[in-house]
Amino acid sequence: MMGRSPLKPGRGWLSLAFWIVASLITLFPIYWMFVVSAKSRVELFGAPNFIIRSFFVENYTATLSNPTFQRYMLNSIIVATSNALLVTTLALLATYALSRYRLVGKENIFFWTITNRMAPPAVFLLPLFLLFTQTFTIGSFSLYDTRIGLVLLYCVFNLPFAIWTLRGIIDAIPRELDEQAMVDGCNTWQVLTGVIFPLAKPGLAVTAILTWVFAWNEYLFAATLTSVNARTITTGLAEFVTVTGTNWGQMAATATLTLVPALVFLGLVQQHIVAGLTFGAVKE
Amino acid sequence: MRSQTTGWLLLAPTLVILLVFGLGPFIYVLVVGFTNWNSFAADPTAHFAGVQNFRRLVFDDPFLHSLWLTFGFTFFAVLSEIVLGYFLAQLLMRDLPFKGFFRTIHTLPLMVAPIAVGATWRLLTVPGLGPLPYYLDRWLGIDLRIGTFADQAFIATVIMDVWHWTPLVTLTLLAAISSLPKEPFEQAQIDGANRAQVFWYVTLPLLKPAILATVFIRVMDALRTVDEVWMLTGGGPAAATRYVGLHIWRVVFPKTDYGYGAAMSLLTLYVTIVLCWLMYVALVARRELPRSE
Fold first, then answer.
1. Where are the beta strands (DSSP E) in A55-201?
2. Threshold 0.95, pTM exceeds
3. Which residues contact B126 (CB under 8 A, 6 or more apart)?
4. Mean pLDDT for each consecutive 10-residue tract of chain A (284 residues)?
């Protein structure tokens, strides 16, 4: 019995012990945040206590009933959902074109899309701020502090991700299927909706979910390019530190609420998130 | 059979959005970086200023300091993540119960919003509330106050980054290790190589492409870290954790000195590219490691 790495008895237990410790370290900060969110100011005073005896709901109700926070939450949901739908739709069209049509320089275009995702966002804050406030305006309407502005901007880092994720999926669908449909007299739109869409559904779902999470998590652009109307939940969370300074229970509750989508979607997309974060360089 | 026009039409919306919101700002910053545009100056219009902004940058101590800090942060964070991630990935290759469960837990930090990561670590480290200052003081007599001590703040941001991103390295390297061929390892065992030799002469060369790809992705990400650090330390104490993204965003941006800010952004982008290129030359073009016969 000689495996690749021969296990001496006891070695396996050591690995297990390491992984248990690693998992505890991973979970601990999140657990502590949850503990703080479930306690009143008085309970938080003194030595740290890791057990939740009675759940202090006021931290959550105070946050959820705050009109400002409600607006931030609604903005985040609208921006993330619109962005996910827009990005998935556009990426499906683009990937189909890149996969099936003989276009000049299409591989260069494919690679160029990803460079949009690599640049440091801080570098583009200044030009984007100026473009949003001064250049992209129609009359008195400007993209600054609008949800549509954020939705369009988030496409810059989400579209490349979606295109790189979907490319392999669309390429894997046999060409014969859509060619047959075309022979049968379907137009491009009918082929896309009738043939490609049903077959690519699982991949599209994963793309949409991860796009949604990336948009939901974004902070820097939202903080710079909105002021009142289009602020999102992440900017609201950051405001907690500066505005109310010491109300840790409420801040923890808000942070926990920010975390909920990640927890909900974790099981569904965990196999794909690594490919997503490495520009598709790594497939599990 | 398929018309090219249809193909371009399908691609058009994507290209338009990326050109307007991706390439557009880049060209914009490129142009503004060479002007003296300052909306609060006596003459608030933009004029071509040559390389004047860049000449100023070379003597801008706070900027150079933040650039230097960013390199230090990136170096320590990425190095720890690679070592730790490799170790965890190797452990996950063994026969381990609850493997899937561990992996799921390990994926969690990757899904959490960076701003929420900063919030959790702030809750851990705030004196009088967080368990870290409390137990470090009780057990080891360490006075943890990241709002006061610059070194502690720096280390805290590094540890936070390691917590957040080691899972990515683990899962990336795990994928690479699982797809390694078996034969070189069997051969090495027959030849009587010890563990260190197998690691150095077989595993490492075979994993080099995967490790390199991971290092590049992590370095690019670490260089642009803003959200978490802003939430944890606010760039302080003083400017001890004001990394370059934070510096541009919090110090230069509010000053309306657009020309200078743009030049700084450009230089940051340039430094990022040069650093990645240097790493590529140093790591890839290096003499190949000798292999065992």
1. 137-138, 141-142
2. no
3. A248, B133
4. 45 83 93 91 80 85 89 94 96 93 88 81 85 82 89 92 88 88 88 90 89 92 89 88 72 91 83 71 56
Cα–Cα distance between A163 and A101 in angstroms, integer?
15
Instruction: List the beta bridge partners of residue A141.
Output: A138
Name the token pair of A15: 């690995």
List helix spans (H) across chain B: 4-18, 24-32, 52-57, 61-93, 99-111, 114-125, 131-135, 150-178, 183-190, 195-198, 204-223, 227-232, 244-246, 258-284
Q: For residue A136, what is the nearest residue in chain B, using CA coordinates?
A: B20
Question: Residues of chain B whose pLDDT is less than 50?
Answer: 287-293
Output A179-184 pairs: Cβ under 8 A, ≥24 positions apart. A179/B1, A182/B1
Instruction: Return phi, psi of residue B96, to 5°.
Output: -130, 130
> Cβ–Cβ of A12/B10 closer than 8 Å?
no
Residue A194 at interface with chain B, using a CB cutoff of 8 Å: no
- Nearest by CB: A103 against B4, B22, B234: B4
User: How far B241 CA sits from the closest chain A CA (Å)?
Assistant: 16
Contact between B266 and A159 using a beta-carbon 8 Å cutoff: no
Residue B141: Cβ-neighbour burial (10 angstroms; 0-12, 13-18, 19+): exposed
Q: Which residue of A has its CA nearest to B102?
A: A23
A contact residues 220-279, partner B, Cβ 8 Å cutoff: 220, 224, 234, 237-238, 240-241, 248, 251-252, 255, 258-259, 262-263, 265-267, 269-270, 273-274, 277-279
Assigned token pair, A243:
């505005």
> What is the domain partition of chain A in residue ranges?
66-280
CA distance B144 to chain A (A): 15
DSSP result, B243-291: -HHHIIIIIIGGGT-HHHHHHHHHHHHHHHHHHHHHHHHHHHSSPPPP-
Residue keyed to tokens 């249809």: B6
SS3 of chain A: helix, strand, coil, percent, to 5: 75, 0, 25
Interface contact B134-A96, CB threshold 8 A: no
Which of B21, B129, B230 minimises the CB distance to A155?
B21
Scan for tokens 């002007």, then name that residue. B35
Q: Is A11 on the interface with B (CB under 8 A)?
A: yes
- Scored b (16 or more CB within 10 A) or e, B219-240 reads bbbbbbbbbbbbbbbbbbbebb
Mark yes or no for CB contact A152/B234 under 8 Å.
no
C-alpha B155/C-alpha B121 separation (Å) is: 12
ipTM: 0.86
Mutation target among A14, A123, A263 for the B interface, most CBs of B within 10 A: A123
- What's the CATH architecture for B63-167+214-254? Orthogonal Bundle (1.10)
DSSP readout, A210-232? Answer: HHHHHHHH--HHHHHH-SSTT--
Close Cβ partners of B269 (under 8 Å, ≥ 6 residues apart): A119, A120, A123
Residues 6+ apart with CB under 8 A from A93: A192, B10, B11, B13, B14
Per-residue model confidence (pLDDT) at position A2 = 40
A66-280, which class in CATH?
Answer: mainly alpha
